[in-house]
Amino acid sequence: MATRRISSLVSKNFPASFCSLGRTFNWNRGIGTYSTAFATEEPITPQVQVKYTQLLINGKFVDAASGKTFQTLDPRTGDVIANVSEGDAEDINRAVSAARTAFDDGPWPKMPPYERSRILLRFADLIEKNIDELAALETWDNGKPHEQAAKAELPMLVRLFRYYAGWADKIHGLIVPADGPHQVEVLHEPIGVCGQIIPWNFPLLMFAWKVGPALACGNTIVLKTAEQTPLSALYASKLLHEAGLPPGVLNIISGYGPTAGAALASHMDVDKLAFTGSTETGKIVLELASKSNLKPVTLELGGKSPFIVCEDADIDKAVELAHFALFFNQGQCCCAGSRTFVHERVYDEFLEKSKARALRRVVGDPFKKGVEQGPQIDSEQFEKVMRYIKSGVESGATLESGGERFGSKGYYIQPTVFSNVQDGMLIAKDEIFGPVQSILKFKELDEVIKRANSTRYGLAAGVFTKNIDTANTLTRALRAGTVWVNCFDVFDAAIPFGGYKMSGHGREKGIYSLNNYLQVKAVVTPLKNPAWL
Ligand SMILES: NC(=O)c1ccc[n+]([C@@H]2O[C@H](COP(=O)([O-])OP(=O)(O)OC[C@H]3O[C@@H](n4cnc5c(N)ncnc54)[C@H](O)[C@@H]3O)[C@@H](O)[C@H]2O)c1
After folding, report:
1. Which of 211, 239, 310, 330, by CA, is between 20 and 30 Å from 159?
2. CATH number reported for the structural domain that contains residue 458 in this entry
3. Signal peptide location in the record (predicted)?
4. Same domain for 461 and 482?
5. Which residues form the catalytic set?
6. Which tens digits make up the pLDDT trace of 455-504?
7. DSSP labels for 57-113?
8. Is the CB–ligand 1 distance for residue 530 below 6 Å?
9. Is 18 within the bounds of a domain?
């Protein structure tokens, strides 16, 4: 069998790849056991003020119609960061009405695409100027390491807006040949008022994946942020208006899912819905859309992605990448490599090294330099993850490291590794969305393909091998929207992302996202005496 080394074992793309985080920042790892030093220190005061807490409707910050507010909390402590206007159905009506007027009568869809492109480019420049404040807000509201927000996520957001700014003046239709003397033009039109609902795990990146392509295509938007993380999208949207976005084109509603989110999904005057969140909520919004006006829906949902370590893998590199694939962002990634399949010949070595790596992971205040893992987003997620850890122990998996709360304040969890995990256990089937690695043993390639595909999800997969034939077999056999080979979490703006099966409908990013935000119209005109057809 012909084999050859795959030269690039870990992607060098940055900032498109989160893979480079560990190397770039030279994380200051502890040794042996978990360090509790950070947990006993006072939380670091964020270098940012919360300026925007109201709803953004028709270019203005306004209170909710009900006058209600809700608290957004600091995951490091559970303390209140700010009181934020709580939008509900009435505010969604106001925002949709502003977006409708901006679409039907406003300048945005009619603006020369180059002008739209320039506004998106100016916005990207403004984000770059305000990276420190935006990254601080993101860390404060979400708990993710500040270096990750500032050096990877914000640059990705900038890149994504520049990418879609580049598309704005390159979207065009087709002239297609037909039987008979007809001119057939296929026009690509903006789809109209877009409803967008995003989760809390990557508040600004999810904002970018939704807003960038929708605006490039000339649409108007009502976006509902996640109730856990309302702050950064309000700040970014203010900058978009500074960059020249006309009022009413982008409206931001903070609020809860069953009230504001459901009102948006079921609104009769919303032309398209884009949702990212859990599979359970995805089913609800799809039903709301179908029961209202049958608006088309794209869904980016949950996952239980396999990460397959083959017998020929460089074990040290595989351990590091599998660790990153699971623990990145506190394990709160839809595409987390949450089933680590390891070939039986390298299993023992892989396990020992994975355990040691988890013990070296630096957990603490996400504002502190060198910290790799902050707190989970809130008490609900914290409790859910702890329940899964308990279930892993009770179902007979071996707890190799972690398994406990980290520190005494906030929602920190020790990096946890289970070995001896069997396919039927809940920890191998459900999306845990936390820092819990499940290691499973396999023997044959056919066997691991079957087991990796034996899930209701199909978002992503990781493959670690030096053998090009093995890599080709796996990449084609795995039923997942993304397969990363010898890399993981490479998120270039041009790469499509989305799921098979219950991980979603449709794709975001790249050219594929444009199709989500365009209508296709055929215009047929008879041709009189054409010289040719
Ligand atoms: N596939 C992807 O690209 C991707 C990316 C990030 C997160 N996710 C998934 O998101 C989930 C975690 O996020 P979450 O806990 O915020 O998910 P969630 O489904 O609870 O919430 C997501 C959003 O939906 C809203 N919502 C909740 N109930 C609603 C309802 N009845 N009607 C309308 N909207 C409603 C929420 O307010 C929030 O804005 C995970 O399952 C993760 O895998 C997927």
Report:
1. 330
2. 3.40.309.10
3. none
4. yes
5. 300
6. 999 999 999 999 999 999 999 999 999 999 999 999 999 999 999 999 99
7. ETTEEE--TT--EEEEE-TTT--EEEEEE-B-HHHHHHHHHHHHHHHHTSSTTTS-H
8. no
9. no
